[in-house]
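Entry 12.
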Amino acid sequence: MEAKPFKGVGSGVYEIVKRYDSDTYRAIYAVKIGETVYVLHAFQKKSKRGIKTPQADVDLIKQRYKDAQEREKQP
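Predicted 3D structure (tokens):
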């Protein structure tokens, strides 16, 4: 299993893709923000058309990344 950069969200955000039987699962995580590793989203990819992550999932990942960054700024 290999991690690859998940583009369009932010620096240090990676994606792990795992295929099991005929299903595909993805986990999107930020390697490290402050002292914490955040899992931003994990899901089963449902679409059989192409490899692109659905926009609703991308929007959720972006929001969670932003929330994680804000959380780390708090004392």
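Annotation: The beta strands are 3-5, 13-20, 23-33, 36-45. The chain is about 25% helix and 45% strand.
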